[in-house]
Design brief:
- By secondary structure, the protein is α/β, with parallel strands linked by helices.
- Helix content is 41%, strand content 10%.
- It contains 11 helices and 5 strands.
- It is globular.
- It starts with 10 loop residues before the first strand and ends with a helix.
C-alpha cells in the first residue's frame, strides 16, 4: 500500500522546451485539473534557493533532493513542474524522480523568435548568444553546452549575427539538448510540436495517455489558439543561420508525437 505522502506515490510531469513554445498555456491549464498542483517557472517553491537571476526572481531549479522534499508532502497526487531553464539536465531529472514523466514542447523557430523579440527586445538576442558561449555553468544558457554544440554556435557568431539570429541560436541550443541527451530513446518523455496541438484537439490527451497521465487530459479545457501560428512569418535571419534552424526543425519533426500516434494510442 502506498503511503500518500511518499514521493513514489506522486505522479510527476516535467515540462521542457524552449521559452515561448506554448508551455505557459499548458502549465496553467493543467494546474486547473482536479488533484493537480503546478509549480511555475519563476518564483516557485521549487526554485526559491536560486540566486543567479535578477533580484526578487528565482528561476533555476533547486537541488533535486530539495525539490523532492518540497513535493513529497503535497497532498496532490499529480504534480506538474516547468523547469525550462533545466532542459540541459532533463535526463538527470527524469532519472532522479520515481514515476516521473516528461513533456518536451517545441514551436517553429520563427514564431518563437517573434515572441521573444516582443517580450525581451531584438537587441537582447545578441546578449543571449554571448551568454550561450560564456562557459558559465551558473548561467542556464551555457550550462551543459558540449564541445560540438559550442563550436556550432561559435562558428555562427563568428560569421556575424543580428539580434534575431541570437534569439534563433537560443532556440537552437535549447532544442539541441533534446538530442544531446538522446531523449528520443526514452519512453518516459514525449516530444510534441505546438502546431500539432493547435490543429488536433485529441493530441494532448493522447500524449498524456502515452505517458500514463490520463488524469491530466484537458477535456474541454483546451488552451491553444490558432491565431498564434505563423506569427513570425516576417522574421528574417542571416543566410548562415537559417540552415541551422531548418535542420533542427526537421530533426525535431522526425521525432515528434503526431496524429498518427493518436490512432496508435486509441
Amino acid at each position: 500500500m502506498l503511503y500518500f505522502g511518499r514521493l513514489h506515490a506522486k505522479k510527476l510531469l516535467f515540462i521542457f522546451g524552449c521559452q515561448r513554445s506554448g508551455t505557459n498555456a499548458t502549465l496553467d491549464t493543467l494546474g486547473t485539473l482536479p488533484g493537480t498542483i503546478y509549480f511555475p517557472e519563476v518564483n516557485s517553491p521549487v526554485t526559491n534557493l536560486d540566486t543567479t537571476e535578477l533580484p526578487k526572481q528565482t528561476i533555476r531549479l533547486n537541488p533535486l533532493a530539495e525539490v523532492a522534499r518540497t513535493v513529497k508532502w503535497r497532498r496532490h497526487k499529480n504534480i506538474v513542474i516547468k523547469p525550462l531553464v533545466e532542459c540541459q539536465s532533463a535526463a538527470e531529472i527524469l532519472d532522479y524522480f520515481p514515476n516521473a514523466k516528461g513533456l518536451w514542447m517545441y514551436r517553429h523557430y520563427k514564431d518563437v523568435v517573434a515572441s521573444m523579440v516582443r517580450k525581451w527586445t531584438v537587441e537582447r538576442g545578441l546578449e543571449e548568444a554571448a551568454e550561450i558561449l560564456s562557459g558559465d555553468p551558473n548561467n542556464w544558457r551555457a550550462d551543459n553546452i558540449d564541445g560540438t554544440l559550442r563550436e556550432t554556435v561559435q562558428a555562427a557568431v563568428d560569421q556575424g549575427i543580428t539580434g534575431q539570429d541570437g534569439w534563433g541560436l537560443l532556440w537552437y541550443t535549447r532544442n539541441a539538448h533534446y538530442f544531446r541527451q538522446n531523449l528520443m530513446e526514452r519512453a518516459d518523455l514525449a516530444l510534441v510540436r505546438y502546431r500539432h496541438l493547435v490543429e488536433n484537439r485529441d493530441l494532448f490527451d493522447a500524449v498524456m495517455h502515452h505517458l500514463d497521465r490520463d488524469e491530466l487530459k484537458f477535456g474541454d479545457r483546451w488552451p491553444y489558439n490558432a491565431k498564434s501560428l505563423n506569427a513570425g512569418n516576417d522574421v528574417q535571419f542571416s543566410p548562415h543561420i537559417t540552415p541551422l534552424l531548418e535542420d533542427m526543425m526537421a530533426r525535431l519533426d522526425a521525432c515528434a508525437f503526431t496524429a498518427a500516434s493518436v490512432e496508435t494510442a486509441k
